Every structure is written in structure tokens, then in C-alpha cells.
Amino acid sequence: MVEAFVRLLCPECGKDWETTPTDLPPHRDNFSCQGCGTTRRTAEFMRTERDLQTLKQFE
């Protein structure tokens, strides 16, 4: 079985990384960048709409 992943991009510092959707809070909850500490809704860190849809499937 292939494991799902989502790509994230911090809107403040530009840090980009990948993680599994199960390691993230729901898309409407707050999430903080591991690089700069910026806190926003998890959905705002998704790099693409596809990444957001993948996250929503695992909620």
C-alpha cells in the first residue's frame, strides 16, 4: 500500500516540506510552521488544492 503525503509551504517564511496527512490537525484547526513558528489554519499551509483535498480525506 502506498502511503499518502501532503506538501506544505509556509506563507510567511517559505519553508516547504512533506508530511503524512495523519500527522496534521484538521484543515480548519491551527497549525504552526516548524521553521518560523507562524500559526495559521492548516489549510493555509497546503501547497496545492490537491494537497488540501488529500488532507480532508483523512479527517
UniProtKB/TrEMBL annotation:
Q: Which Pfam families match?
A: DUF7836
Which residues belong to any copy of the DUF7836 domain?
1-59
InterPro entries assigned: DUF7836
Q: What is this protein called?
A: DUF7836 domain-containing protein
Classification lineage: Archaea, Methanobacteriati, Methanobacteriota, Stenosarchaea group, Halobacteria
